[in-house]
Structures are given as structure tokens and as C-alpha cells.
Amino acid sequence: MTSTKTTGAKSPAVSDEQSPIDASCGCAAHDAGGRKALAVDPEAKSRNTKRLRRIEGQVRGLQKMVEEDRYCADIMMQISSVQEALRAVGRELMRNHLRHCATTAIRSDDARAEEMYDEIVELMYRHGR
């Protein structure tokens, strides 16, 4: 069984005992529900869950501010706070991805390492905006 990237490159065939390797993921950690992290630091997961709940509340607050016709500059300041909180979650996720998924893929074989290098570059590009 092989997967094909949009570039046409093929990933290596896998045996029946292994799950198929998705060419778009360098870590190759998959199950029936989709891609999964190879390992997640439980403390980081807890921190991120708390941050995301706080962000969810901030976004509800933003919605209320807009509905109440609050001062635009105040709304924009709150938007900046939400964006920074999301960036903090992204940094934590990137740290975990590099520590576990990327490290495993890069140490495994050349094909998976190349896929992971591409994935990391794309993540850095998208999250550096």
C-alpha cells in the first residue's frame, strides 16, 4: 500500500501489521480516527487545555462586546490578547511536536526525515505570520 503526496512522491510500502503512512505527515502516527501525536507531555496538555478554555471565554467576551457596541479600540485590544494566547498554545504544541514527532521521524529513515523537514518548514511559515 502506498500514499501519494500532491507532488507525486510515493511513501514507502508498509506491511499489514503497520498502519499506512500518510505522505503528508512525517511522524506517521495514525489510527482509525486520524493522525495522533506520538507522545504528549501531560503537563503541556493540561496547560494547553486550560489556555484554550480561557481563550474560549475571551472570545465569548469579544462577541458580547461587539453585540453591546463597545468602543472599537477596547475590542481590538481584547482581540490582541486572544491572538497572543493562541500563539502561546501554538508555541507549546510546536515544542511538543519537535520534541516527539519530529525527533522520531528525523531519526528513523531518510524519507520520513525529508517529509518532516518539509512539515516543519511549512509550520514555521504558517505560524510565523
Q: Your description of this structure?
A:
The structure is a single chain. The protein is mainly α. The chain has a domain of 88 residues: Up-down Bundle (Methane Monooxygenase Hydroxylase, Chain G, domain 1). It is built from three helices and two strands. A two-stranded antiparallel ribbon has the order 1-2. Strand 1 and strand 2 form a beta hairpin. The longest helix has 37 residues. The radius of gyration is 19 Å and the shape is elongated. The relative contact order is 0.14. The N terminus is likely disordered.
Question: What does this entry show, briefly?
Answer:
By secondary structure, this protein is mostly helical. It has helices at residues 42-67, 72-108, 110-127; strands spanning 30-31, 34-35.
At the fourth level of CATH, the homologous superfamily of the domain at 40-127 is Metal-sensitive repressor, helix protomer
Q: Any idea of the CATH class of the domain at 40-127?
A: Mainly Alpha
Rg is 19 Å
CATH architecture of the domain at 40-127: Up-down Bundle
Helix content: 55-70%
- Sheet having the most strands: 2 strands, antiparallel
Enumerate the spans where pLDDT stays under 50 for 5 or more consecutive residues. 1-25
> Number of helix segments?
3
Subunit arrangement of the protein: single chain
